[in-house]
Each structure stands twice: as C-alpha cells, then as structure tokens.
Amino acid sequence: MTTFATLQDLAELDHIAELIGTTVPPERAQLILTMATSAVINAAEVPIIQVVDDQAVVDGNGSDRLLLPNWPVTAVTDVTVDGTVLDPDQWRWSRYGELRRTGGRWPLLPRAVTVTYTHGYPPEEIPAELVSVVLQVAARTVSNPQRLNSFGDGQVTAGYGGGGTGVQVIELYASEVAMVHRALR
C-alpha cells in the first residue's frame, strides 16, 4: 500500500527523531505509517488515491446536472445514456464531481447514465494536509505505543487525550478527521 508519508518524513519530526533512530525499527515505523495512512483514507469517506478509468452507473434525475460518487475528478472519458454514447460536447464536468448535460437534461431513470472517469490524487500529489495528519497520527502512535490515557512517574503526569482501549487500531481524533475533510474540499 502507498503511504502518504515516508520514514524520512517521520524521522524529521523533532520530538520523534530519537525514537525512530533508537527504539523503533524501520519495519515497525513503516507499519505505523501504513496504518496511519489507512486511518486517514477511512476518515475521508471517499477514495483518495487516484483511480483511472473507473466506471460509475448513476441515476438520471431529470435535471441538467448529476453528481459523480467520487472526487476530485481529473478526467471524464466517456458518458453513456441508456446505451448511447454521448459526444464530448454534450457534457461538461467539474473537479467536484458535477457532470453537466449541455443543451439538454439527463433522463429521469434509475441507472441510466454510465460514466468512465478518473478521480482521486496521484500519489505524488496527495494534499499536504493529509500528509500532516498521517505524520501527526504516526508520531502519536510511536510516542505512545501502548495507547495510554495518561502516564505518571510519581513526579510528573502526562495526559495523552485518548487511547487506553488495548485495541491495536489507529484512530483519528475528531480534529484530525475535520482536517482530512477540509483538505478534500
């Protein structure tokens, strides 16, 4: 699986660099980055990684606009209505998944429109905000591998603000989920 951040990105975080170099083997750090990337993808609720020539079958709604199920849209190569291929001058698309019929309306029929399109980000163009969330989650996981709520040594107590479930799943905080959604607008 492609991760949104690299081991080098993680090692460059000031408060984690020593941990990566001395106590966390690269294989474990890579696994943590993979799990953090998966958590961000799950929080996004739409595919983030680019899918080329995906096909969507959508209901016609009787208007001149349809919404494609996944975005950002980077190309639309083919639009078919009830088995008839439309000429490219009969439709327009937007980055946000809007497919507009030019000079007409989509039929008011279920599963009437088939669209072949490319959506998502190529790996080298993942928004910086998503990379930031992955690094934040990975750093938190490295610094608190037991997922403790808090830790005290008798003199100082540190609160982590989450964890403690014993489940080995990486979860995003609500603020991180919000950051993922903002990045994808």
Oligomeric form: single chain
Q: Approximately how much helix is present in the residues?
A: 25-40%
* Order of SSEs: HHHEEEEEEEHEEH
Overall pLDDT score: 84
Percent of residues in beta strands? 15-25%
What best-fitting shape do the alpha-carbon axes yield? elongated
Uncertain segments are 163-167
What structural class results from the helix and strand content? Answer: alpha+beta
Number of domains: 2
Q: Span between N and C termini? A: 24 Å
Report the strand count: 9
Number of contiguous helices:
5
Rg (C-alpha, Å): 22 Å
Major β-sheet profile? 4 strands, antiparallel
In order across it, which strands form the biggest sheet?
A: 1-7-3-4
Features:
alpha+beta, elongated, 4-stranded antiparallel β-sheet, 3-stranded antiparallel β-sheet, 185 residues
Question: Concise description?
Answer:
This protein is of the alpha+beta class and 185 residues long. The chain has 5 helices and 9 strands. The two termini are 24 Å apart.
